[in-house]
Amino acid sequence: MFSYPKYKKKIYFSKMHGLSNDFMVVNCINQDFHPTSITIKELSNRYTGIGFDQLLLVEKTHNSLFDFNYRIFNANGNEVEQCGNGARCFGLFLLLKQLTNKEKISVSTKKRRLIIYFINNNLIKVNMEEPDFKLDNIELSKNILCKNFSVNILNDSLTCSIVSIGNPHCVITVQNIKNAPVNIIGNTIEKKSIFLQGINVGFMQIINRNYIKLRVYERDVGETQSCGTGACAAVAVGIAKNLLANKVKVDLLGGTLIIEWKGLGHPLYMIGPAQHVYDGYIYI
């Protein structure tokens, strides 16, 4: 009978998704798991690994203000600041694994505090804190003094809006997202030297004041089926420009989110589903 070498470590995980944005979730509270970027790349490979958009780690917190620590890694091994769809899956994971019995929990991310509310078994609401238009928290190679700026792409000038939802987003309003060259423009903007750590790029089509359609190019990943923080960023920009109401339905390729925001000085809320796919283990 074949046996794995003793240096291999058995790691238990869950595969989850939020509107088809998929994750490998690992409980690091009772497992010693410290993956390198090479390991994450191998695990994220959809042909030879588990396959996922992001790796989510559940960790203990040493701060009494929080219940857990939440870490996010993109498929290429880079740690990122935030993931909205991941936050909902993170919350559902805690329930399924009986790591909490609270109706709401507070978790710390790389740069923000999130409050996760459990509405029912797979519908979860997240307080994403207030969107940041000041740009102080976005690493830029030069100062941008206004919310809007222009970039020249494909011999055309595009007007973009920048906002941070704990991670950086560039939002572009388009007439029809079906025709938007998401990967070409997204990749070009992400690689712009002005964005030192890259940036996510959202393409928003406004249907009416309560309804938008959205496609998102995520940095390090490319276009994904959905992006929770991208939905938050697009709605925040729309409300800040008085183009949208305070409660907006967002249709992404993978499904629908509800975003609520009363405007400056208030936190933004994201409401949507999370799904558990399967549990497994792998030898590292």
TrEMBL record:
Cellular component aspect of the GO annotation: cytosol
Keywords per UniProt: Amino-acid biosynthesis, Cytoplasm, Isomerase, Lysine biosynthesis
Gene3D superfamilies: Diaminopimelate Epimerase, Chain A, domain 1
GO molecular function: diaminopimelate epimerase activity
Pathway(s) per entry: Amino-acid biosynthesis; L-lysine biosynthesis via DAP pathway; DL-2,6-diaminopimelate from LL-2,6-diaminopimelate: step 1/1
Enzyme class: isomerase
Active site: 83, 227
KW Cell membrane (keyword) present: no
Catalysed transformations (reactions): (2S,6S)-2,6-diaminopimelate = meso-2,6-diaminopimelate
EC numbers on record: 5.1.1.7
Localization (cell): Cytoplasm
Residues the UniProt record annotates as site (Could be important to modulate the pK values of the two catalytic cysteine residues): 169, 218
GO biological process, one term: lysine biosynthetic process via diaminopimelate
Residue numbers marked as site, Important for dimerization: 278
General function of this protein: Catalyzes the stereoinversion of LL-2,6-diaminopimelate (L,L-DAP) to meso-diaminopimelate (meso-DAP), a precursor of L-lysine and an essential component of the bacterial peptidoglycan.
Entries under NCBIfam families matching the protein: DapF
Family, similarity comment: Belongs to the diaminopimelate epimerase family.
Subunit note: Homodimer.
The protein's name: Diaminopimelate epimerase
Organism: Buchnera aphidicola
